[in-house]
Amino acid sequence: MPVTRFANKQQISFDPEAINIISAVFEKACDALGLSDRRDALTELLAKKVIEAAQSGESDPLRIYQMAMDSLSETTPGYPGWSVGSRNSAKSAHELCLEGNCR
Q: Which of 47, 50, 62, 91 could form a disulfide with 6 if both were Cys (CB 3.0 to 4.6 A apart)?
């Protein structure tokens, strides 16, 4: 599980409940973005964003998911799939996923 592996590498610790939350958020985000290779750089970046969101003190899985996806889209604006259509008028990929329209 890359999200916990990444946290361990960075010497970041979470309680068991938080680990369950960030692991579930990470898996949902990977599924939403079509990321299946858990060792590639983009997946590692996603893990970092999920952990950063959880470190902010947020414990709500939906908020962690939104924060991580928003941060990821700001970090990698040219990646296809972060948003559908124009940035101003279309819903982002994670907004569509939250509505049940994940891949």
A: 47
